[in-house]
Amino acid sequence: MIKIKELSDVNLFTSGHTACPGCGVALSIRNAIRVLGKDTAVYVPASCAVVFGTTFPYGAWKVPFFHTAFENTGACLTGMQAAFEKKGKKVTVVGFAGDGGTYDIGLQSMSGAAERNEDVIYICLDNEAYMNTGIQRSGGTPFGAWTTTTPVGSKIQGNQRFKKNLGDIVVAHEVPYYATLSIGHPLDFIRKVEKAKNMKGFRFLHMFTPCIPGWKMDPSKTVEVTKRAVESGMWTLYEVENGEKKVTYKPGKMRSVKDYLNMQGRFRHMSEEDVNKLQMWVCKKWNLHYREKGAPDVCEIAPHDERHAITEEHREMHGP
Amino acid sequence: MKKVITGDHAVAIGAKLCRVDVVPAFPITPQTLIIEHIADFVNNGELDTKFLTMESEHSVMSAAAGASAAGARVFTATSSQGLAFMHEMLYAIAPLRLPVVMANASRTLGGPPGIWCEYNDSMGARDSGWLQLYVEDNQEALDMIIQSFRIAEDKRVLLPVMPCLDGFVLTHTVEPVDIPSQEDVDSLLAPYEPDIVLDPERPAMIGTFMPAEYIMELRRQTVGAFECAKDVIREVNTEFAQKFGRDYGGLVDTYRMDDAKIALITMGTVTSTSREVVDELRQKGEKVGIIKLRFFRPFPCEDLKKLASNLDALGVFDRSISYHGGGPVYNEVRSALFGMTIPVINHLAGLGGRDVTEEQIFKMFELTSRAAKGEKVKEVNWHNTRGETV
Amino acid sequence: MFEVRFHGRGGQGAVMAAQTLAEAAVNEDNYAVAFPFFGAERRGAPVLAFTRIDAKKIYSKTQVYAPDCVIVLDDSLLDTIDVVSGLKPDGMVIINSKEDPDDIDLGISFRTATVNATSIALEILKAPITNTAILGAFAKATGLITIESLESSIKEKFGGKLGERAGERNALAARMAYEKTIIGTSRGIKKLESKKQWLPAYQDIPIGGALIEGKTQAGLIGPGSFIENKVSGWATFRPLRNKEKCTMCLLCWFYCPEGTIIRISDRGDLMTNYDYCKGCGICANECPVDAIKMTRARS
Question: I need a labelling partner for B329 at 20 to 30 A (CA). Which of A185, B359, C58, C265 fits?
Fold first, then answer.
């Protein structure tokens, strides 16, 4: 396995790109392409990454770059891979799509490529909203989050639905590899990209990529907020290889979702009730995900509700 | 070798003879036979191509774009709603100058839904940057797949080409077709070798975000390629005629136009039926002829001007409607003939696949002749349409 | 007609400033329009916005080419952009700068006003968002709108969007800037260099806009050519690394979204290329031994 020290010094995504300071997408792209190496060709659908990565006549990519539209990453990768294979060229074909381009408008195209088990790597850069158009809700937006299409109004505050479970959708296609990644966990990140690179068939890397303006946070906190997401269970690190699920990192102790929400302006308006609702969702996910034996399907961090009283088991598991 | 085959089969054989590298496919009536035949070729080992069973037409054109940008010769086929679903990608790939060839089985674009021949599917794509041509019979369908690749991949052109064949009237009709030998096709069509492709050895950026400082020039450049295409179409036609003995005339073809005073502009299979009508009218001594509009994009303004200069009146057949009035061909023709004073009469017929009979075509010539004599004739005439009189 | 051009960076609120100025002008019974340069720039990248003010209805829908006033929200822009381009001879320049107007070199003498809007913004708004402060300077320097009508526009616009308290504080920032604005004349020493740009004729654009690595008179184009884009001006802060404390764990090198941290001395040491540092501060935030501190850039 590659260690940080052994990573290449070559910038295949060069400096001078125009991403916002602290951009989680730029950070993820830079390090992913560092591991993937120069024998790679990328497709980027409509997203910030098209604009900050290429603005005619400039470009940050030093590997072949292709872009046409928004909803067609899976299909474009399919075509590129077919051409390379026909021509006998060994090229790692990689798509870098956003959450909107994957969860929503690009779901069909992704599903087609997954189902056909195309020999490509599909990377979803999940910043939990349509950021390129100025922060609108997507199927990847978490419960409660402010976006410009889920504004904080006097009647309705923030996103009313929970984040779509994309992982299970991808895995249901019985693809060789699905993994979630966090830029706050570099060794896990590098290992998964490297593993995907060395496999065949449809590989899906789901990257959690904070967006500074979209999440209304300090640009220096990109990595920290990612770690906090994992510690709170809002993001979980695992991989599914040929149907076998494996948790690749488990935080020692579950952290309150509030600690995660407090770092970001997009959650600032949330009522105690809504925070609790989200905490319940996270707890359920946490328990399912880490297969905690004996943990009830409830959460000890949720107060004000007698039905969800804290049990001794919970206290033991999560601390006081 | 002669074979009695459908238009769809002829198209599939044409694609096979062009040794296409990648064929992304999705079924839609009446095109489906094309991709079925290609699937047969591939699975029987007759054709070494990457056949991709995509999950939608949008994905078909996306995969076509990706494969073409990566240097492959790409063929596909679609029709009607499928073409409409691809619309965004038609616009995406033409200015990127990716020379994909896609057959379109002309079919009415709903609503209301229908499956028969009408040109409102391809006419909607007329300004997407694709070259567009309409064929008259199955032989021309096959031949034009070969010519389309030659034209598309010419370094002066580098544009996608859409040969259109009439749904059912050609796609599902069998007639004898002379199948060229692979050797002859190979000598006409060299392997596709683009200058810039997605290649890690020499990385390229294709489809970058482009500010206003450049797009105007890029659009102008594409117009230049359309201009060049006119010459290339004529050159390829000549070369093809020399090799195979079939001369299609280039952008337009003519029938009995030498001394004609009345002419009808036709497209697709209506051209074929019109030949019979013209023969009959000629026997009666009427000086009539046909201008077969083969390429709608690029539009042959110069050819039409020249042909119209000796006429007393010109009829224009349209198989689709611009809802403001006449058909798109009529509007283009009138624009091309600006400044000329002869009457130009629009004949709408065959919408939604309604059969265009000889009787209707006689009527088209009759109305056009009357206009030539100075009689009052409607500009736009709906043939065989209940409630309309012609 | 009075035309104003705003030079700012994405996130500084140049567009909001242009709109607020228009509202203030309308409040004083003028007609006014405000619009951004329709770009797709990210935070920190140079942006333009415009305001037109007149006594009667304005019909022109073009960009502003010969402004009466230029407002610069970030003086780092002076290094890379000819902000006075097209400015009318009797025009006015208003700059967010800690310098006196007489110490500002625009390459040409113009009536110039300066105010340290960044300090005011950091003090009052706790963020380097200088758009309201600079409008206070505009009111003072041009007298075109009164500070009172500006304050009420700010309260209305910012208050409506960000809450009453934010509206009040932004109005206060404008008032404080109004009082601290200094008016003078810029110097005209430096040679103005217009930015080189590759603008090929249509015959010379690579077919379909497909680019491979190349070089033009205006510099590199194609893959990897973004290194032509020096982004240091985006930064409000920049990192300083204490070599003694550094353990070479390389986390900063890994975490930098820009690739500005480079391994040198046969990989035994690190160097920061400030040309490409946008000052996000991830490196300082993540350094496990606190070897990196963020300091004000250009101070």
Answer: B359
